[in-house]
Amino acid sequence: MRSLIVLARLLDYPTLALQQAADEMRAVIEAESHLPWVRRQSLMQWIERIAESDLLDLQADYVALFDRGRATSLLLFEHVHGESRDRGQAMVDLLAQYRAAGFELDARELPDYLPLFLEYLSTRPEEVIAQQLGDIAHILARLTARLEEREADQALATATLLALIGAEDEITEHQKQVREEKRDDTPAALDAVWEEEAVRFSASSDQDCAVRSAAGQRRARQRQNEKERAEPVRIIDPATSVGRESHSH
Questions:
Q1: pTM score of the predicted model
Q2: Contact 55, 16 (CB under 8 A)
């Protein structure tokens, strides 16, 4: 399902290559028969906004949305297991699932990173896609409610995933709870997390800690931004590739 690759790209860190692929992504969404026209139109309008926006502004907004606090994390198991040992085992199990399907990945992202998970699903039969999206529907619904609360376009992507399996109604169940939540991306909340992590720090070095964190990975990608600008985003038939140089199956 090529639309899953587009949604994965839309949820990933924005690059010039993403902007340059706007026409191709719009064509994929327009042809997606599993979605009603109104939803396809909303996604195509978002793609147009991405293409026309200043790239640095897009990147700054993305970092502010996903790298400050954990409420909007795109790491699926963080919403379920937090930092417990259960998360590690869940990662191992998911990685084994990828490999059993012939989907190999490098160390760039953790296995539960949502855009990566969507790339994997794009290679699976429709019944598997429906079952596995259903398994994370509660996470997607809570994430969508939080993104909507912050008026983020990325809510269109997560809501679309729920629409693909007819589970949009689950978003409503989480909206009231999200409105009552304390934001974890305020300066005070971020300071409290920093103090807690400083006490629990156990990485072998600052560099190791930075590489393991989502924010650290984002900063690493920013340092390679110029290189990425020269590489086109490819939206390719899932039967042959997921559209990323770093992943193959």
A1: 0.75
A2: yes
